[in-house]
Write a structure and sequence with these properties.
alpha/beta, seven-stranded parallel β-sheet, four-stranded parallel β-sheet, 13 strands
């Protein structure tokens, strides 16, 4: 391919098998400005996000190995390809971990390195991250409050953006008339969700509203001890029919179809639980940006009211009033949806500009 020399050639690299929900927003922000986008990721990510194919100018598959030596050979090959293609900037979609550390050591000095940081505590106590930050001097985090709370060394430039763009879908999932869908993106996993602390809330809701469905959107293994125990409790209380989960990965179009029909989105994070160690202290749940993108009311425990976005745009609940939030009048829910849709911070145009301006700065 003959490149227009006036274009900025940007490589977006994801060495891992997740965080692909952040790719479309970045690619669109660059493509809108007619920049040349090279995507480098594992085939798993490429295959489940084939809608990206017409949006990128080039794609290089990346393969990881258990062998450190084989990984280094892969990184050296990648270095050669980046130089051949004239890449001027690299954005690491997940700017943490050993592969990023090893690559930045051999990265060409003439290519600027930029990173998206998903966990802000990495800036405080991670030796690997300190090594990475010797070469990556610009980081984006995924929420304004995370940015405000992050440790900001003078040697680094830090900012934030919201990846709010998701693919459109023509797939239709059936939602029976009168059903209320509380969608919990992700699998049945106590480490990331307060399953057992939420059980009483779910029981109360089902008793009051028998047509409510709690839908977990992620591959769940019902044989895992915590998932098995949780499912057994649902059966014991005779409310298993109100729970939906999947033992397979959902294709992107099916996942989005469920999200679009949700009445509420619920990250299911509560203070002083394992889930709180994962989220809202050092990182953001992907559920949050889905809410802001699709204007779907977000259920957040009131302990997190200090987050600017939650204080203004979420339904804050306690363990005593959770049911009240689920039974709000339709007019009240519509007001919340309108408020979300009118907020300039959650506009695609705003976030594309934030991202692009940071990349070229």
């Amino acid at each position: 391919m003959t490149l227009n020399k006036s274009l900025l050639i940007v490589a977006i690299i994801e060495f891992g098998k997740s965080h692909d929900e952040c790719l479309l927003s970045q690619i669109n922000a660059l493509a809108e400005k007619k920049e040349h986008v090279l995507l480098i990721c594992q085939k798993d990510i490429w295959n489940r996000n084939r809608f990206l194919e017409p949006l990128v100018d080039d794609f290089i598959p990346f393969v990881t190995f258990r062998s450190w030596f084989k990984n280094i050979k892969q990184l050296l090959f990648l270095r050669k390809m980046l130089l051949q293609k004239g890449v001027e900037r690299i954005v690491f979609n997940t700017a943490q971990g050993s592969l990023v550390r090893d690559f930045i050591i051999i990265a060409p000095s003439k290519i600027e390195l930029i990173g998206i940081l998903h966990t802000i505590k990495k800036l405080e106590n991670s030796f690997t991250q300190k090594t990475i930050s010797k070469k990556i001097k610009k980081y984006l985090v995924l929420n304004k409050t995370l940015y405000q709370r992050a440790n900001k060394p003078n040697s680094l430039k830090l900012d934030y953006f919201y990846p709010l763009e998701f693919p459109s879908t023509q797939k239709a999932v059936e939602k029976k008339e009168g059903q209320v869908w509380v969608v919990v993106p992700g699998e049945l996993e106590q480490r990331r969700k307060d399953l057992f602390g939420s059980l009483s809330l779910m029981q109360q809701a089902i008793k009051k509203c028998p047509n409510i469905q709690f839908i977990f959107l992620g591959k769940s293994n019902p044989n895992k001890p915590d998932a098995q125990e949780f499912l057994n409790l649902f059966k014991k209380h005779n409310i298993r029919d109100n729970l939906v989960f999947f033992d397979r990965f959902l294709p992107v179009d099916e996942f989005i179809s469920y999200i679009q029909k949700a009445d509420f989105l619920w990250p299911m994070v509560h203070p002083n639980t394992d889930s709180a160690q994962e989220y809202f202290s050092n990182q953001i749940s992907g559920t949050i940006n889905l809410s802001f993108s699709y204007n779907i009311p977000l259920l957040i425990h009131e302990n997190y009211r200090s987050w600017e976005d939650f204080k203004e745009f979420a339904l804050l609940y306690s363990f005593s009033d959770f049911l009240e939030k689920l039974t709000l009048a339709p007019s009240q829910l519509k007001d919340i949806q309108e408020k979300l849709s009118q907020e300039s911070r959650f506009a695609v145009k705003t976030q594309r500009k934030r991202y692009y301006d940071f990349i070229i700065s």
